[in-house]
Amino acid sequence: MTTIAFPTLSRAAPSSMQWRLESNTRTFVSPLDGSVYTTEMPGAKWAFTLDLPSLQEADAALLQAFLLKLRGQTNNFTMHNWARPIPRGTALGSPVVNNSSGSPLTSQTGASLITNGWTAGATMKAGDYFGVNSELKMSVADSTADGGGNMVLTFEPPLRNSPSHGAAITTTRPTAIFMLTEPRSEWSNSPGGFSSFSLQGIEQFL
Fold this sequence. Notes:
This protein has about 210 residues and is mainly beta. It has 2 domains: about 5-85 and about 175-205, no CATH class; about 95-155, no CATH class. It is built from 1 helix and 16 strands.
């Protein structure tokens, strides 16, 4: 299995894109009084549907070649969310994971992360995406770096694995790893040499 980067197209963004988080929950309804009980389990996944209509020949050729290299669902690919490729906050600096709050180094799990390396006063806003440990997260609260460049990020979905001390935080076009939801590669052609594509993908855990 190979992980391939989504190609860089001259078109800035898809014409439309649905982006969602599929939580791993189970719901039970009591047969006695109708009470509903919900259980959350690890494994929430990002998923998307995107439409790229009327691509010119150069972009169409790149995307066709990309789809064939995926070999259906054999290979994975990395892709960012075009709707918010850069954060609304300033996100200045070279942020990294900071596990040095204990001795020896502590592991961090859950839905918050201690980081440093930010420019003092740098911000991440609720709704901003970032990447860490090959995982894509969305900040769910505003955060501001202190004078020492430290910032605690609060996000969803929770970490699947504890990132190592010093692991980089990516704030510009952070990606998740996806696979196609269907084992086929297809597109439609129209007069004038245009090609149109509709893709669906779901996050994969490596």
